[in-house]
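@channel sequence for tomorrow's demo:
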Amino acid sequence: MIERIRDAARLLDGVALRTPLVDVTGVVPPGGAAPVMLKMESAQPIGAFKVRGAYTAIARLDPAVRARGVVTSSSGNHGQAVAWAARAFGVRAVVVMPGSAPKVKVAGVRSWGGEVVVAGATRSPEQTARMEQLGRDEGLAVIPPFDHEDVVAGQGTVGLEILEQWPEVETILVPVGGGGLIAGISAAVAAVKPSVRVVGVEPAGAPKLSAALAAGAPVELPETASVADGLLTRSVGRLTWPILSAVVREAVRVEEVEIARAVALLYRQLRLTVEPSGAVATAALLAGRVVPTGPTVAVVSGGNVDPEQLERLLASDLAAR
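structure tokens (generated this afternoon):
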């Protein structure tokens, strides 16, 4: 996998941003002495790390297949990334989204030229089935949100960059949905610096990695719920699981109030606009779920938040104090 990740890094050079590490030592967590950095994937062109995997997967399609267009299923950021990458190649993109998808993400898909089809709940069988049906009926190449080798390889470039930017890093905290990002980062860590501790972070209402680690295999949760809409997958992927489980030994859960606190701190103290899904790794540090003992990176995976939702999160943080 590491060679696929390195190939993806070359492919993404000049396409995706090499996002910065922002020093938040003493701020996250407050008063902490260990050095802490945020990996700012919210700075990517569509506001999330997903551009890496989507572009890599579409770029590696056979040109004749790619020319017919692509289809995906997404609650928002992967859909935006697929639409963005498809536009770069001049091909059609169809994105199947749940009715509950944030307005800012639906608008984002359309702004990049993507066609939105509404079906099912977030990461539901209905949503996936509609994606697959459109692929069959309209000859579109399916670009899954996480369970795809090229998607994982693209996301793995986040880990490769962290290791290059800060070779001293000892711990990396990663938000977990279907596991594409943490699988890619785990593959990079396993090849470059196996001593690095990789910790998955998920909402308490969507503990699919915790369940998988306890069972030793992916577990389908009956339901998930959280303000972190990008992390509501009911199970880690069948492809992502064997990659990440070779490295990841722990997952921590953050409560809704802790996610709101992280969004508020990032916005108020650091002037960073981060969506709830992108803030969970920061939340784990603020809540003391993970206590840094050495150089630590928290991945800020996305920044696409509706203004109304941001106001509600800021207000709920104040109410909780």
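heads up for whoever presents: Residues 50-142 form a domain with the Rossmann fold fold (CATH 3.40.50.1100).
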